[in-house]
Amino acid sequence: MTWEECMETLGVNDWYGCKMGLQPTRNLLKKCGNPENKLRFIHIAGSNGKGSVAKSLQQILSLSGYKTGMYISPHIEIMNERYTIDGEMISDEDLKRLCLKMRELSESLEEEKPNSFEMLTALAFCYFLEKGVDYVVLEVGLGGRLDATNVIPHKELSVIAHIGLEHTAILGDTLEEIAREKGGIIAKDTPVVLMHQKPEVMEEIRRICKEKNAKLHITNPKYFHSYSFHIDNGYQYFSYRERKEYALSLLGDYQLDNAMVICDAIDCLKERGISIPEDCVKQGLMTVTWPGRFEILKKRPLIILDGAHNPQAVNSLVRSIEMLFPNYKKRIFFSVMADKDYMTMLELLKTNTLSFSFFQVESHRGQNPEILKEQWQAHFDGEIRCPESLEEGLEWNLNAVKKEEEKTLLLCLGSLYQVGQIRNFFRNYYSSH
Predict the structure, then answer these.
(1) 378: domain CATH number?
(2) b/e sequence 101-117, b meaning 16+ C-beta within 10 Å
(3) Could you tell me if 336 and 276 lie in one domain?
(4) Which reactions fall under this protein's catalytic activity (predicted)?
(5) In this predicted structure, what is the pLDDT of residue 173?
(6) Which of 72, 119, 156, 210 is least enclosed by beta carbons within 10 angstroms?
(7) Nearest alpha carbon to residue 412 among 54, 21, 42, 76
(8) Res 182 pLDDT > 70
């Protein structure tokens, strides 16, 4: 089901709505019979990496024999991706039926009505309860404290991935303020796993944990070691604490940071009496797939697709390229939301880049390519293009990297909202060539 079809079925047309708060979701869930009270959650917040952590935890729990639901946002191609059980998406029939149910219950409310994201979140809880899942891996939509997912009354574990400056108009202007919002998912007497990061973030999370009597586990890079990567093998290898030479299918140096979070989260769940065989941890990390996250679409020519959409993610992406593919020149295909700090993102991408192609995301929030070109040409001496269509832009870049010496790659990035279209283009291109 597409976003448009889903919104039409829900009977709403807002883009999530700007007002943050838990009451509208609570109102709707009460009408649903409070399904959230009967589910067991692993709740994940963060600016970058929370989706990769969520997907990996689902994979490991599923392999361990638990029926595991996962709710994430945004999707890449279709709405069904947001709701999976053991990796399998919700059917169109179930999604449509539950959208109609949410619409009917929402319209019957006398209190403040929920926005689309709040309705989609309530839908997740209804779906997972219906299907009798053992656990739900729950990704925060925005922030944490006032996010619709934070209505859950209890959780097995709270996980906080990397925190950076994002959505500052809503979450606050400093890392401490944003950490306070993300730390809002921390529950009383419930363990927390936090990625090791900037001191001000860790200090704020420590403070909240102390207040809530929540045991805090911070990843420790001192016990981490990674090994050299070769593209033909396709895995990154790492050792962390007692785990030695594990293969990681997700690529990029930030995925190595995420791997520490995943391992510590698994150990916390084991401490809570959840049986997770070590073979399933190893197998899960080796087999997990996550489209649009340092995804190598083609090895020759080298085409990389990444949903990096803020300076922190772009910085990690650039570091990963330098680590995995040193001395490569880049051609960049870039689209971005207008409210992002895109000039900083472009500065980070500039080194060793031959050209930039700007394209507008299919969203009313996407930045106009001509504005990007106008602002960027004073900072970049190479070629800047604004193709007429996504297809034309990708084909031009593809032809360019094919003609050049081997050490040139095509990097497509800037927004998760364009990932689906780009994957489709290359899928169709290579099936017909």
Answers:
(1) 3.90.190.20
(2) bbbebbeeeeeebbbbb
(3) no
(4) (6S)-5,6,7,8-tetrahydrofolyl-(gamma-L-Glu)(n) + L-glutamate + ATP = (6S)-5,6,7,8-tetrahydrofolyl-(gamma-L-Glu)(n+1) + ADP + phosphate + H(+)
(5) 82
(6) 210
(7) 76
(8) yes
Cis peptide before 74 (omega within 30 of 0): yes
77 shares a domain with 190: yes
Among candidate residues 166, 130, 135, 167, the one with its CA nearest the CA of residue 152: 135
101 token code pair? 């149910």
Domain that holds residue 335: 295-432
Q: What is the dihedral of CA 296, 302, 306, 308, to 10 degrees?
A: 140
pLDDT single digits (tens) 370-402: 999 999 999 999 999 999 999 999 999 999 999
Q: Is 206 helix (H, G, I), strand (E, B) or coil?
A: helix
Domain endpoint, select from 228, 263, 287: 287
Phi, psi dihedral angles at 6 (to 5 degrees): -65, -45
Q: Same domain, yes or no, for 275 and 320?
A: no
Are residues 279 and 327 both part of a single domain? no
Q: Where are the alpha helices (DSSP H) in 131-252?
A: 168-171, 175-182, 199-212
- Phi/psi region, residue 413 (left: phi>0; alpha: psi -120 to 50; beta: rest), is beta
* pLDDT given for residue 281 in this prediction: 98
Residue 255 clears pLDDT 60, i.e. is over it: yes
- Say if CB 397 and CB 333 are below 8 A apart: yes
Q: Same structural domain for residues 7 and 95?
A: yes
Same domain, yes or no: 180 and 263: yes
> Which of 196-200, 249-253, 269-273 has the weakest average pLDDT?
249-253
317 and 330 in contact (C-beta within 8 Å)? no
Q: Is residue 230 classed exposed, middle or buried when 0-12, 13-18 and 19+ CB atoms within 10 A define those classes?
A: exposed
Residue 60 near residue 154 (C-beta atoms within 8 A): no
Task: Quick: pLDDT tens for 400-426.
Answer: 999 987 799 999 998 877 888 899 999
Q: Is 239 helix (H, G, I), strand (E, B) or coil?
A: strand
Check whether residue 266 and residue 344 sit in a common domain. no
In whole angstroms, how far apart are CA 366 and each of 134, 309, 371, 413, 418? 39, 12, 11, 13, 10
> Could you tell me if 310 and 428 lie in one domain?
yes
- As for how many domains the chain has, the answer is 2
